[in-house]
Amino acid sequence: MQSYAGSRAIVVGGSIGGLTTALLLRKLGFDIDVFERTPTNLEHRGGGIVLQPIMMKWFDGHSAREIEELSTKSSRLRYLGRDNEVLHDEPAQWRYTSWDTVYRALLSDFGADHYHLGEFFAGFSQDAEQVELRFASGRRESADLVVFSDGISSTARRRLFPDLARQYSGYVGWRGTVREDLVTEETRALLGDALTYSIGPHTQAVMYTIPGMDGELEEGKRLLNYVWYRNVADGPELQELTTDVR
């Protein structure tokens, strides 16, 4: 493996993608700094994640944490009809985690010394040797390599691809969580050990159990995570739905 010892890299954006990139670059030998625009750690910013093999593989050998410490599991795949009628049920092993749990694990692996909060990236210039980054605070940083991982409102994307327009996917989604101990025993029995779908014309909901707000895995302290998707045509109907963050 080629070593980049002595080279400096900067990642703009300190979320899951940015931290994963930073950890990989550090493993290659880069001196690495991460700059995140928000002034505080990114707590409580996402819901559930169905764990795919590539994410589980990351924690097997790249992290100080084991995937079993960071996730819940279920043993059934279930489809519900009206009035909670079980239309289909089969054995299926899945694991789940939450955005917060993964973020905290990655940040713990990376450490706080080179993780800079409250630095809003504003612009850059480059030559054949280095890239200079400019931040709204007046700070300037130079690096041999810069990776932009600053999300859907990326300043860098607007700079590098000014004609690139986001396209509506054709559906909207409502996401939420509720603690297990706040629902009925009937609900826990129906949803607790399954990846559960409920499907109707032009709509579906998916439900599964994830770690609690602080990563708790104990039954009762975990969260039931749900996402309700609905196909909505672009135009007036969509505009009436998307009036604010709620």
Which characteristics define this entry?
20% helix, FAD/NAD(P)-binding domain, seven-stranded mixed β-sheet, globular, D-Amino Acid Oxidase, Chain A, domain 2, 2 domains, 246 residues
Question: Layout of SSEs?
Answer:
Blueprint: E1 8-12, H1 16-27, E2 31-35, E3 48-50, H2 53-59, E4 72-80, E5 86-98, H3 99-110, E6 115-116, E7 121-126, E8 131-135, E9 140-143, E10 145-148, H4 155-160, E11 171-179, H5 185-191, E12 194-200, E13 203-210, E14 223-231, H6 236-241
Parallel strand pairs: 1-2, 1-10, 2-6, 4-12
Antiparallel strand pairs: 3-5, 4-5, 7-8, 8-9, 11-14, 12-13, 13-14
Helix pairs in contact: 1-3
Describe the overall structure.
- The chain has 246 residues and is an alpha/beta fold.
- The protein has two domains: 8-40 and 117-160, FAD/NAD(P)-binding domain; 49-97 and 168-241, D-Amino Acid Oxidase, Chain A, domain 2.
- Helices cover 20% and strands 36% of the residues.
- It contains six helices and 14 strands.
- The strands form three sheets. The protein has a seven-stranded mixed sheet with strand order 3-5-4-12-13-14-11. A four-stranded parallel sheet has the order 6-2-1-10, with helices on one face.
- Helix 1 (16-27) packs parallel to helix 3 (99-110).
Largest sheet: 7 strands, mixed
* Percentage of residues in helical conformation: 10-25%
Count of DSSP strands: 14
Helix/strand order, N-terminal first: EHEEHEEHEEEEEHEHEEEH
Query: Judging from the principal axes of the Cα atoms, what is the shape?
Result: globular
What share of residues are in beta strands? 35-45%
Structural class: alpha/beta
CATH topology call of the largest domain: D-Amino Acid Oxidase, Chain A, domain 2
- Total domains, how many? 2
Rg over CA atoms:
21 Å
Average pLDDT across residues?
93
Q: Please work out how many helical segments DSSP would assign.
A: 6
Indicate the low-confidence ranges by residue numbers: none
CATH architecture of the largest domain: 2-Layer Sandwich
Q: Under the CATH scheme, which class of the largest domain?
A: Alpha Beta
**Major beta sheet, strand line-up:** 3-5-4-12-13-14-11
Q: In angstroms, what separates the terminal alpha carbons?
A: 48 Å
